[in-house]
Amino acid sequence: MSKWVALVHRVSGIALALFLPAHFWVLGQGLAMDAFLKWTEQPLVKFAEWGLVLLLAAHLGGGLRVLALEFLPWLAWQKSLAAAAAALTLAWGLAFALAL
Question: Rounded to an integer, what distance in angstroms lies between the CA atom of residue 22 and that of residue 17?
Answer without folding.
Answer: 10
